[in-house]
Q: What sequence folds into this?
């Protein structure tokens, strides 16, 4: 390994231990300059690298690495980045809802369920991103209760709506599920679209 660059700062190979890429990345995360940061991008020998299967980096031996360039972010920056992606992500979910509702109302179970499961996965990812942002940015803990309880209750309410939808899908109650999607969930997501700018502001 000849060159290691972390956020534009060059390091000598002797400063970075490890016999394979996974060990090297773990050691880099323990380096004083990257303590508490997350790797967001990897260029291996000038090419973007990502693991297609878990621990694939174990197979990349140190001797095959000529150059390694990394981009990192603090947990706080990552949380704020999640929040900033939220409005676009949310707009995509809201745009998809009418099509799912229509499919359930028309009785097209196969198509509706396919759309619904993909939508559910995206919604759960959004909620996970929000929760991670809340934790690292200490959001929803407003002084004297300001905004804190309201936003915390919102997420709890969204979890309840999600649980209701999953139960209805398991019971194959398509009409009731369509109602929940069209009214309860749509209202919740629209409220979230109003809350996100506040979270972004508080995250700075």
A:
């Amino acid at each position: 390994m000849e060159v290691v660059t972390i956020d534009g700062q060059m390091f000598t190979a002797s400063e970075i231990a490890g016999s394979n890429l996974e060990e090297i990345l773990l050691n880099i995360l323990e380096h004083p300059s990257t303590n508490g940061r997350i790797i967001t991008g990897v260029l291996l020998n000038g090419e973007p690298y990502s693991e297609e299967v878990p621990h694939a980096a174990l197979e990349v031996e140190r001797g095959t690495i000529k150059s390694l360039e990394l981009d990192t972010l603090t947990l706080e920056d990552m949380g704020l980045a999640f929040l900033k992606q939220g409005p676009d992500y949310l707009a995509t979910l809201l745009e998809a809802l009418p099509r799912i509702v229509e499919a359930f109302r028309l009785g097209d179970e196969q198509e509706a369920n396919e759309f619904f499961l993909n939508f559910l996965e995206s919604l759960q990812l959004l909620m996970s991103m929000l929760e991670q942002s809340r934790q690292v940015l200490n959001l929803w803990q407003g002084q004297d209760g300001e905004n804190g309880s309201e936003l915390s209750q919102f997420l709890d309410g969204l979890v309840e709506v999600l649980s209701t939808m999953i139960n209805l899908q398991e019971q194959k109650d398509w009409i009731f599920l369509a109602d929940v999607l069209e009214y309860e969930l749509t209202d919740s997501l629209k409220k979230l679209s109003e809350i996100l700018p506040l979270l972004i502001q508080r995250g700075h």
